[in-house]
Amino acid sequence: MLLDSLYDVPAPPPSPGPAVAPVPVAGVVPFSSVDWPGRLAATVFLQGCPWRCPYCHNPGLQATAPCEGGVGDGAGEVSWAGFVDLLGRRRGLLDGVVFTGGEPTMHRGLGAAIDEVHVLGFDVGLHTSGCYPEALGRILDDHRPEWIGLDVKADPRDAEAYAEVAYGGADFVSSGHGTDHFTGAQLATGGKELRSLRMIRESMPGRLEVRTTVWPDSPAVAGLPGIAEMLAEISGVAPLTWAIQKARPDGVSPDAAAAASFRADRPGWATEFDGLVADARATLRDSAVTVVGR
């Protein structure tokens, strides 16, 4: 009887496998003072981006498949579990965590990842291009990051100029200009950006930095007056920072640079850049927008 009862004991359930990571981590910077201005943060890079900006200095993050070697200096901790473990050891040393990419909002698990970071006791900053306004809206409503760094790549009301930046590094833009180089979806990028900008401004006023990256003779440079005008219209009374920053040559794909005739410098560019920043400050002097040059 006793022996029979022992044989009747059900087998234990199989051990659960490792939890699926909510987002694809491509790399980690354990300490950063630049990714969230004024705060010390850990930065996590997510894999994948739908756009192909010619000045992108992380082109290995554009594809959805992981890039070889990862990004950042996180001592090999390029997994979500490794990043969470890192945060556990950084309590009291960091102000927050920044999700960047790539484009974080393309991942369905971003909200869960933000929630997990909040549970660990960290504030969350988010870098985004605004290319998925619906997904961004869900993040703002349901997961509440404390700060947003939003890329505004050109005047979003100029559909062709915006597409020239967002898709300027792609192979199909080989020469010339004109809307015949872009599909309707690509020409809609500026409109998506504008929706995202207005959504963030309404949802979290005072916690937004707009960033525009410029390089010599680019659509971004040509669009600065329009961006200034747009920011003046939506600024209201809540403070907003507009960072106008030079494109960096390091890490840029040679093929992307050639496709868009991209160059990060030329004679006189430093002086011209200072003048662009000064003009933007003058335009927005009476608004709540603070212009900084980087």
General description of the model:
The chain has 10 helices and 9 strands. The protein is of the alpha/beta class. It has a single domain, classed as Alpha-Beta Barrel (TIM Barrel). Strand 1 and strand 2 form a beta hairpin. Helix 4 packs parallel to helix 7 and helix 8 runs parallel beside helix 10. The radius of gyration is 22 Å and the shape is globular. The N terminus is likely disordered.
Strand ordering within the main sheet: 3-1-2-4-5-6-7-8-9
Radius of gyration: 22 Å
What is the number of strand segments? 9
Strand-pairing-aware structural class: alpha/beta
CATH architecture: Alpha-Beta Barrel
- Quote the beta fraction: 15-25%
Our count of domains comes out at: 1
What do the pLDDT scores average to?
89
Main β-sheet, in a few words? 9 strands, mixed
CATH topology: TIM Barrel
Helix and strand pattern: HEEEHEHEHEHHHEHEHHE
Which consecutive residue ranges, at least 5 long each, have pLDDT under 50?
1-9, 14-18
Distance between the termini: 81 Å
CATH class: Alpha Beta
User: Helical stretch count?
Assistant: 10
As a percent range, the share of helical residues equals 25-40%
Organism: Corynebacterium xerosis
Keywords: 4Fe-4S, Iron, Iron-sulfur, Metal-binding, S-adenosyl-L-methionine
GO molecular function: 4 iron, 4 sulfur cluster binding; catalytic activity; metal ion binding
Cofactor: [4Fe-4S] cluster
Write the layout of secondary structure elements.
Blueprint: H1 2-7, E1 25-32, E2 41-46, E3 71-72, H2 80-88, E4 96-100, H3 110-119, E5 123-128, H4 133-142, E6 147-151, H5 159-166, H6 184-187, H7 189-203, E7 208-214, H8 219-234, E8 240-246, H9 254-259, H10 269-283, E9 289-293
Parallel strand pairs: 1-3, 2-4, 4-5, 5-6, 6-7, 7-8, 8-9
Antiparallel strand pairs: 1-2
Helix pairs in contact: 4-7, 8-10
